[in-house]
Amino acid sequence: xxxLPPLPLIDGAxxxxxxxxxxxLSLCHRLAAYRVLHQRIPAATxxxxxxxxxxxxxxxxxxxxxxVEPVGPEFYNEVADLFAKHFVENPTPVDDWRNVNWAMQxxxxxxxxxxxxxxxxxxxxxxKRTVEMSFALELYRHRPLLGGAPIPIIYSGRIxxxxxxxxxxxxxxxxxxxxxxxxxFDGMRMSSxxxxxxxxxxxxxxxxxxxxxxxAIRTKEPPLYVxxxxxxxSGTKSQTPEQWWNESFQRERFILKPGExxxxxxxxxxxxxxxxxxxxxxxxxxxxxxxCTAWGRCPYYDVCTLAPEDRGLLLASGLFTxxxxxxxxxxxxxxx
Length: 336
Description:
This protein has helices at residues 18-27, 29-37, 45-66, 73-89, 100-113, 182-189, 192-205, 224-227, 241-246, 260-280, 301-305, 308-315; strands at residues 14-16, 40-42, 120-121, 133-142, 151-159, 161-165, 168-177, 209-218, 232-234, 237-239, 249-255, 320-322.
């Protein structure tokens, strides 16, 4: 593990996205090395990724084909076909609740809450609705310390849904999460991803963005009282299954302040430059104060607790799998 792999350049450029790169560099450079240099992620992570991709498929299909109007039985039949293919290609472990049935139930409940929308969609020059907008744009050019040609740093991602509210452009991001509440939305307010997507949209379209909307979907397994259709009571507190379902879908809108996107660009470039500083010295440091307890505990915690010469063995084991995720190569709805 002392030898760092080559930079994953594509035609001499380095593609960075939020999930694998920016988020990792914000937490711990050793974490980033595992994800983007060694390209290994925990095997268990794939279940959540695949389930989130399934819900993105359904929402993308809804907005692309049906816009913001109510849908009928045809929509659910189409989503069932999309899910059938997706879960065959990305099977869920038999003991995990995040399966095709749970995905379909979430979609039906989501559509009950958001039967029609209070916003409009953007359309492209051909009149098609703008949904799932993949992008790759040059952020800046890094100049290697040891000389050589500058390395274009390409910021990539996928904007779920640009939309219009009272003629103002907003960027919506569908977020699947196991937990909702103030802490979740506090994190979204400061999210580099949300600002980055607004930055990318402005750069690509030359249209000003008012802010971003987080469309959150709680994917946690329903408690027993919800599965049984009963009301939960504890002292003076109570909750019906309908109340539990209603709070599983939440949205928050965040207004961008003047200069906020320029600051995002500066911050992101600084993170990437710090990565290069460490990479040229052949060592990715651990930042243990926060990262080791991120998401409860860092998924690479057990790797880092081993002796340096043993870490590669665990990283190469069946507990981890190749990181092939890319925002530019994702399953997508049929563009009918």
